[in-house]
Amino acid sequence: MKKTLILFLIILALIVFYFFWPSGKRSFDQNKAFVVEVSDNGTTFRVRAEQKTVADFLKKNNIKLSEKDFIFPVPEAKIFPGSRVTIRRALPVTIVVDGQKIKLDTFGTMVQDAINEADITLSHADKVAPDKNMPLKPNLDIVITRINFEEITLEEDIPFQTVEKEDNTVLWRKQEIKQKGETGIREKIYKITYTNGKETSRILLGSKITKPPVPQIEVIGTKIIVGKTQTGAATWYENGDSFTCASLDFAQGKYLRVTNRANGKSVIVQVNDSGPYGKGRII
């Protein structure tokens, strides 16, 4: 047991001596192969290396970079065992927005990253294709459709109605306007949707009458003034659907009341012709 303890202490002393005893700078042989870890745009793999610089390592392993790609350490840096080379590829994408095409080389991984790098602000209603959470790929076209909303109030005329009434204080068939009509006003509130600046939808949210229309009241006279009277025979006369007659004593356009003396019934007719010429006939 005592020998085992002594052996353990000797080994421990050798380990401490090896690691902590000052022995100057340690060095390694760069001519020997060693392992380097590479992260290329998120894909990680290990490669055996013998080169002295990052640039030599990339050339040997046919890892090509574009001008805008990011690499760390820089190509001129020396490479050591355990080194990690990180490469971020700049992806060329095009963003179509607000009537223009923005070409961008992005280090992002998602569509939203490219939009952020282009300093484009989106509203909650804007549409993005492909979706903002989709991964980027080279030469991707990202289309942003602007969606805006607006509420407007429009005034609409309400036509007035015309009401006809008979008035026995106005001469027969004479027309007069007793009350002039006035157009009313209705307010309508619309929600308008604009897609890339053009109206694509209009929805009526509500309406109210702010000024009621005023009806126009027109009167037609029924007053008859009895002037000259005649008694005699009447002839059959027809001229369309209107009540008309011919007369030699009354001018055309005059209204006459014709009464059947046998039954007392009357009708109002308008003179529109000259006649009759038979003896004893007055109309």
Give the structural class: mainly beta
Q: Remind me, CATH topology of the largest domain?
A: Resuscitation-promoting factor rpfb fold
What is the highest CATH level, the class of the largest domain?
A: Mainly Beta
- How far is it from the N-terminal to the C-terminal residue, by CA? 160 Å
Global morphology? rod-shaped
- Overall mean pLDDT stands at 87
Strands of the biggest beta sheet: in what spatial order? Answer: 2-1-4-3
Number of strands: 17
Q: What topology does this entry show?
A:
Elements: H1 2-20, E1 34-40, E2 43-49, H2 54-60, E3 70-72, E4 84-88, E5 91-97, E6 100-106, H3 111-117, E7 127-129, E8 140-145, E9 147-158, E10 162-171, E11 175-179, E12 184-195, E13 198-211, E14 216-223, E15 244-246, E16 255-259, E17 266-273
Parallel strand pairs: 1-4, 5-8, 10-14, 15-17
Antiparallel strand pairs: 1-2, 3-4, 5-6, 7-8, 9-12, 11-14, 12-13, 16-17
Walk me through this protein's architecture.
By secondary structure, the chain is mainly β. The chain folds into four domains: 31-89, Ubiquitin-like (UB roll); 91-145, Ubiquitin-like (UB roll) (Roll), CATH 3.10.20; 150-220, Resuscitation-promoting factor rpfb fold (Single Sheet); 224-273, no CATH class. The chain is 12% helix and 43% strand. It has helices at residues 2-20, 54-60, 111-117; strands spanning 34-40, 43-49, 70-72, 84-88, 91-97, 100-106, 127-129, 140-145, 147-158, 162-171, 175-179, 184-195, 198-211, 216-223, 244-246, 255-259, 266-273. The chain has a four-stranded mixed beta sheet, with no helix packed on it. Strands 6-5-8-7 form a four-stranded mixed beta sheet, covered by helices on one side. The protein has a three-stranded antiparallel beta sheet with strand order 9-12-13, with no helix packed on it. A hairpin with a 6-residue loop joins β16 (255-259) and β17. The longest helix is centred in the N-terminal third of the chain and has 19 residues, at 2-20. It is rod-shaped, with a radius of gyration of 53 Å.
